[in-house]
Amino acid sequence: MSRTQTQTNASCVYGVWYSLLFCFSNNSRSMKVIVKQWHAIAQWQWDTGKTDENGDPEEDVCGICRVPFEGCCPTCKVPGDDCPLIWGECSHVFHMHCLLKWIGTAASKQQCPMDRRLWVTAERKVAASHS
Amino acid sequence: MASEALRNQVAAKWQDSFNRLNRGSQGISGLMDFSKAWAVAADFLRPRDLGAPPKDFNTHEVRGAFDVLMQCRMLPMLLESFVEDMRRNQHLITNDVMRFMAEYEVPTDSKKASGEADVIGRLVLLLADWYFAWAPGGELGHTISSAYIVNFQTHIFSVLPSTFAGGFKKLLAATLSLFTRGTTPEIPASVQDPKLWPSFELLGLADRYESLIASVCYEHIEVHVLETCTGKWDEPMLGQLREWMADKVVPWMLLPYARGAKTPEEARTMLQGVGSRFDFHVCKTLCDLRTKEMFDIVIDYPDSIPSLHDLKECLQRVDQRSQLVQTLRKANKKRLLHPGADTKDILTQYVSLIRCLRIIDPPGVLLFKVADPIRRYLRDRPDTIRCIVASLVVDGESGDSLVDQDEPIQPLQTAQVDDYTDPNWEPEPIDAGPDFRVNKPSDVVSTLVSIYDSKDLFVKELQVLLAQRLLAVTDGNYEKERRNLEILKIRFGEAPLQVCEVMLKDMTDSKRIDQHVQFQSSSVMHPTIISRHFWPQFQAAKILLPGQLHEIQESYAREFTTFKPDKKLRWLSHLGSIRLEIQLQDRTISADVPPLEAAFIELFSEKDVWTVGDLVARVGPVERPAALKALLAWVNRGVLREESDGADVQRFRLLESASTDAEAAPVRMATTGSRATLVEEQPTVLTVQQQQAGQMEVYWKFIEGMLMNLGGLPLDRIQTMLKFAPGYDRTVDQLGGFMDAARREGLVNVKDGIWRLNR
Amino acid sequence: MSVVYSRRLKKELQEIQIEQADPAKRAAGIQLLQAEDLKTWYFSIEVLGESLYKNEVFHLMVRFDPEYPFKSPAVQFVVSDKVKPPVHPHVYTNGHICASILGDDWSPTLSVMAICITIQSMLASCKKKELPEGNDDYVRTAPDNPKKTRFVYHGDSV
């Protein structure tokens, strides 16, 4: 009986009760690992909606400047929010600054550089991917 | 048969001689007078023994006699006879010389130099006595006295044995010591005799042994310089030496070199040439000494600055710059540039050397020549850049920075091209080689950085260092790093350090984001969120954290994405540190541990006993040594115990209660402790070296394709072609090292400098 | 103007050079001949396999202006004593090429290598070796730089 109870090893509501039990059951596990503080390291990544085989977001480059999305476009020095991405309705993604520069040229005819469809900036439906 | 004419001729000659001697006196009375005068004069001149009582001559009578002889034009005859007399009495002087020299040459250990000098001194004084005893007196005319001097000196020099020169030198040295050291009881009376130097003059010793006199003075100067200046670098010595010369040596120099000077001005003029020679010798001796000591003088910098100023002055007088270069290069090679020396120490010595030689030779020619081998050596050391970079980053605590804190922070300077329109332009010093580059007043940091052709390597290393330091910051205070970066930006320029700027921004952004996330949903986790492309590469060890650790990650990542909807977090799970509290049956343990250790102990809350293999299987790609190290850390904390049942499988058991295992634990800890040291500490951030090795593998494809398509290639051709590869920045030496490694692995072979693929 | 985007061109060059050194990655029949700066590059192009241009080698000159990649590069075949342009309905005898991707259909996501491959396949798919209509007129009046010409793209769009 004590065996199964200790194995649940759950919240400490019954902490006192458990510790009493442990006094009698030599074989049981009582160890509790409590995380007090955690200095972790992470990389941020744009959520382009595409994922690689590990389920991680795919590391991709901007088709215009050929710099990774997590880098910054050639006119910027700081990545991230300062050099954001822009999504098209056509699902193609670019550094915003690169795309705007392209759209700004007469030759672009306002088309997506990838599929030459008229560029329409997409509203990101972020909530959908993380429900 | 004599002819009449001949007979007449002889008769006329005889008559002529007779008339000359008789001087037209009555009968032969003139002849008689002459005969008497000859006897008086010859007796007056006859050399006698010193011991013999002096004869009492009537000056008037002697003068009269000489007058008669002069009238008869017989003085040359008299002189001849006098010289003959001297020759006949020479043995008297020879005896004395032999006696004294025998005494001088007696080989006794106890006899000191002063004693030897005394013997010679007494001999000289005695010879002077002989001289006076035999001297014919100046009133007899120049011819006689100079003939006397020549004959007397010739004789003396013919009987003085070769050993005399050595003794005479000792005597001279003793007289010089008398001037420089003052009177001491050791100095014998003969040396102090005021008649001594006039005697040298009389006997012609001063002229004959002129070079000996000079060498005595040179040697004395050398001894004095070595005695007073060796190892004494913290005060200027050259001035003191010159004072010593003026006060002590010059008065002595007056004796041999200002003989016959009537006025002080005259004496000064006479001393000018020799004085300058001796001053030169002082400089040369000091210069030799300092040159020999230079390596240690550099070590002692800045305490040794006065000696450097001395050396600078000496070098201006004595052209021994090339000796200095040679000696220093040799010393550096022997004492500095060897595998046993710390890179940090080499750099410190190099920096001191820069500062020292800049004092001695501001244009930097000496430095250029001496520094070259050091720079080449440093270039080949793997940790040189790291050492330099570490010293560039002000720590605040360690005061042993290479960089002088007082030195103004300035942009790196590169070797300039001569600007001939510069009004201050000066031609290069004559001993500057063709490859000498004027490194005008460039600062130490620029000089160090210029060891390498490109400063990119420094920027990379700075990035690695900054990454290590930033990730180690736990109190959220990056001000120190910010200050460091500002300083480095002044040195290296803004653009190359842009990545570092982003790194710092990541730190502050992380803090801000964390505040937000904590507000949304509080968490024990406070991550640093980095911009991947702006940080050094991290060792790829993607471990999977189990249990609650994974949940904490997931929950934080979710909250992050809520706050930043278009971004995701990708954990570098193996980095960072976790503060855990382990509650056990009879104790509670707190520890700050790396994630891998946390992951393992978390797994032990599932069950008590695990094999290493099972643990690793749960966490992911972890090297076995790293896994063992993590487990042993818990063993050392007394939380786990290693169990082995004779099988190869290593198992670890959780120690719920410390007391029950008290007997086993210490033993275990001892053995595992020793094993733990076998596991090497792995830096989490890849060093530039490791990154480079990794990159080289990328270039290998390139090289392989090249050699496959083009056949054999020499190294420099490979290098040229590799320059087309993206980001390739290796030197040809580094490439050589890599190719060599490839050869050892059997991938390529080299023959006559041509590299080929092994097929 | 957009000198900052020269990094993109440098990157392309490096990639091309890597590919050239690696037979597995190299685009067959296309070779970088010269790229001493970021202004003018030369390639050699031949059509491998069965085609009308078998055993013919052509040289391509690619010139970039500072607007690259927002503007297409000027691409033409080299005409010299040694190399001639291909006889092709879209290639004038002065080397100018009538191809939509070099004009109206240019996109900044295209690359130099993409252009080369397009031109190579334009040759490979040619059914009949003939000069473009009005070749002589065009050649007589054509500007030095083909980009100054307004082509009317006809036939199979490439």
UniProtKB/TrEMBL annotation, chain A:
<keyword id="KW-0833">Ubl conjugation pathway</keyword>
<feature type="domain" description="RING-type">
    <location>
        <begin position="73"/>
        <end position="116"/>
    </location>
</feature>
<dbReference type="GO" id="GO:0097602">
    <property type="term" value="F:cullin family protein binding"/>
</dbReference>
<keyword id="KW-0863">Zinc-finger</keyword>
<dbReference type="GO" id="GO:0005680">
    <property type="term" value="C:anaphase-promoting complex"/>
</dbReference>
<dbReference type="InterPro" id="IPR013083">
    <property type="entry name" value="Znf_RING/FYVE/PHD"/>
</dbReference>
<dbReference type="InterPro" id="IPR001841">
    <property type="entry name" value="Znf_RING"/>
</dbReference>
<dbReference type="GO" id="GO:0061630">
    <property type="term" value="F:ubiquitin protein ligase activity"/>
</dbReference>
<dbReference type="InterPro" id="IPR051031">
    <property type="entry name" value="RING-box_E3_Ubiquitin_Ligase"/>
</dbReference>
<dbReference type="GO" id="GO:0008270">
    <property type="term" value="F:zinc ion binding"/>
</dbReference>
<protein>
    <recommendedName>
        <fullName>Anaphase-promoting complex subunit 11</fullName>
    </recommendedName>
</protein>
<keyword id="KW-0132">Cell division</keyword>
<keyword id="KW-0131">Cell cycle</keyword>
<dbReference type="InterPro" id="IPR024991">
    <property type="entry name" value="RING-H2_APC11"/>
</dbReference>
<keyword id="KW-0498">Mitosis</keyword>
From TrEMBL, chain B:
<dbReference type="GO" id="GO:0005680">
    <property type="term" value="C:anaphase-promoting complex"/>
</dbReference>
<dbReference type="InterPro" id="IPR044554">
    <property type="entry name" value="ANAPC2"/>
</dbReference>
<dbReference type="GO" id="GO:0051301">
    <property type="term" value="P:cell division"/>
</dbReference>
<keyword id="KW-0132">Cell division</keyword>
<dbReference type="InterPro" id="IPR036388">
    <property type="entry name" value="WH-like_DNA-bd_sf"/>
</dbReference>
<dbReference type="GO" id="GO:0070979">
    <property type="term" value="P:protein K11-linked ubiquitination"/>
</dbReference>
<dbReference type="InterPro" id="IPR036390">
    <property type="entry name" value="WH_DNA-bd_sf"/>
</dbReference>
<dbReference type="InterPro" id="IPR036317">
    <property type="entry name" value="Cullin_homology_sf"/>
</dbReference>
<keyword id="KW-0436">Ligase</keyword>
<protein>
    <recommendedName>
        <fullName>Anaphase-promoting complex subunit 2</fullName>
    </recommendedName>
</protein>
<dbReference type="GO" id="GO:0007091">
    <property type="term" value="P:metaphase/anaphase transition of mitotic cell cycle"/>
</dbReference>
<dbReference type="InterPro" id="IPR016158">
    <property type="entry name" value="Cullin_homology"/>
</dbReference>
<dbReference type="InterPro" id="IPR057975">
    <property type="entry name" value="TPR_ANAPC2"/>
</dbReference>
<dbReference type="GO" id="GO:0016874">
    <property type="term" value="F:ligase activity"/>
</dbReference>
<feature type="domain" description="Cullin family profile">
    <location>
        <begin position="412"/>
        <end position="620"/>
    </location>
</feature>
UniProtKB/TrEMBL annotation, chain C:
<dbReference type="InterPro" id="IPR000608">
    <property type="entry name" value="UBC"/>
</dbReference>
<protein>
    <submittedName>
        <fullName>Ubiquitin-conjugating enzyme/RWD-like protein</fullName>
    </submittedName>
</protein>
<feature type="domain" description="UBC core">
    <location>
        <begin position="4"/>
        <end position="158"/>
    </location>
</feature>
<dbReference type="Pfam" id="PF00179">
    <property type="entry name" value="UQ_con"/>
</dbReference>
<keyword id="KW-0833">Ubl conjugation pathway</keyword>
<dbReference type="InterPro" id="IPR016135">
    <property type="entry name" value="UBQ-conjugating_enzyme/RWD"/>
</dbReference>
<dbReference type="InterPro" id="IPR050113">
    <property type="entry name" value="Ub_conjugating_enzyme"/>
</dbReference>
